[in-house]
Amino acid sequence: MISEIKNVNVWIDLDEVLADTVREFLKFCKTKIDLKVQREWLYNYFLQDVKETWLSKEQFFDLWKSFVQEGHTKSVPVIEWSYQLLSSLKNNWNKIFVITWRHDFERSNTQYWLAKNYPDLVDDLIFTNFLSSEMKNKSEYINKYNIQVFFDDIFDFCKDVALNSNIPVYMPTKPWNVHYQDLPANIYRIQTLNDLIK
After folding, report:
1. Is residue 75 over pLDDT 60?
2. Pairing between strand 9-12 and 95-100?
């Protein structure tokens, strides 16, 4: 399957596709507010939408800003099979776009992390500014950047792209998307890189 992706523009989401961010962010939150929520319990990626956290959108964003400003995003571990994924895609003459929900104020830390963990593999880095009024649906970026393959872990984003474009969408299984069973025809659930090599 992955060998068939050749000479196209590929969208790779950053957090939870390349970076093991949620686990690290939860550890950080526990030190700040004694958050008891476990990663495996998260039925929604965004903590402010998980009622057991009792976090408002503003509290979540404040915690995230502190996480960034204290430099934690520069040391987040990589997802186990992600380097091999990007290398395989790059070896097939694909152009790799990392398009993330993160914000412009995170650019320096994010560029540092990508250069350290995926040197010479990423062609462009685009921020969608999720918690700002500038946020657009991810499907709006598909035509703008001529994206032909999409990787993301958030079901709503995958569904948006799947229903508004005719491109393959690959969704790594995470606690916040595992309960979605009836997937649109062009969304493919993957567990590891092996699912793409079959």
Report:
1. yes
2. parallel
